[in-house]
Amino acid sequence: LSKVEEEIGTLRQVLAAKERHCGELKRKLGLTPLDGLKQNLSKSWHDVQVSNAYVKTSEKLGEWNEKVTQSDFYKKTQETLSQAGQKTSAALSNVGSVISRKLGDMSSYSIRHSISMPAMRNSATFKSFEDRVGTIKNRVVGSRENSTDGLHSAPGAGEKPPQDNAPF
């Protein structure tokens, strides 16, 4: 028994020395643990692909795929989805063209230039904006100027602010 245990110890030492030598050779060859893992995975995947179960399943799925793709329902669905995709693509292209054209039209004027234009200043939207800003200014600053004691008067206390229901 002791002789067998001694031989086991010797074999462990020899195996450890061989594993160290193998590691040194791999390091010198530039092989990394990741390369070993890749190799193991590749071999395992190959083993799966050549297995009887995988081959039979692949054949069955191939048959089903052929039956489905040859069916009238599949062909009609594929045609409908293709037409829908083409129409959607055309619609999005048109929207993109309109947006590009509008942005192109807008880019020819600077914001400062467009605000100073008389047509812009006389528009209903600009007038409504000016009225609202004026109303807000009068509420904030006007109450301060009209107050005799220098304190703000609460809105609605005393005079009633003008009602402006113009759309903004």
Features:
TPD52, Tumor protein D54, coiled coil
What does it look like?
- With 168 residues, the protein is mainly alpha-helical.
- Among the domains are: 1-51; 54-100.
- Helices cover 79% and strands 0% of the residues.
- It is built from seven helices and no strands.
- The chain has helices at residues 2-29, 33-49, 52-70, 72-107, 111-116, 118-121, 124-146.
- The chain is elongated, with a radius of gyration of 42 Å.
- The N and C termini lie far apart (102 Å).
Describe how the helices and strands are arranged.
Elements: H1 2-29, H2 33-49, H3 52-70, H4 72-107, H5 111-116, H6 118-121, H7 124-146
Average pLDDT rating: 78
Helix count equals 7
Strands, total number? 0
Secondary-structure element sequence? Answer: HHHHHHH
Proportion of β residues?
Answer: under 5%
Largest sheet: none
What structural class do the secondary elements suggest? mainly alpha
Shape summary: elongated
* Poorly predicted runs of 5 or more residues: 149-158
Calculate the terminal CA-CA distance, rounded to whole Å. 102 Å
Question: Taking Cα atoms only, what radius of gyration do you get, to the nearest Å?
Answer: 42 Å
Helix content: over 70%
InterPro entries: TPD52 (IPR007327)
Organism: Tinamus guttatus
Keywords: Coiled coil
Family: Belongs to the TPD52 family.
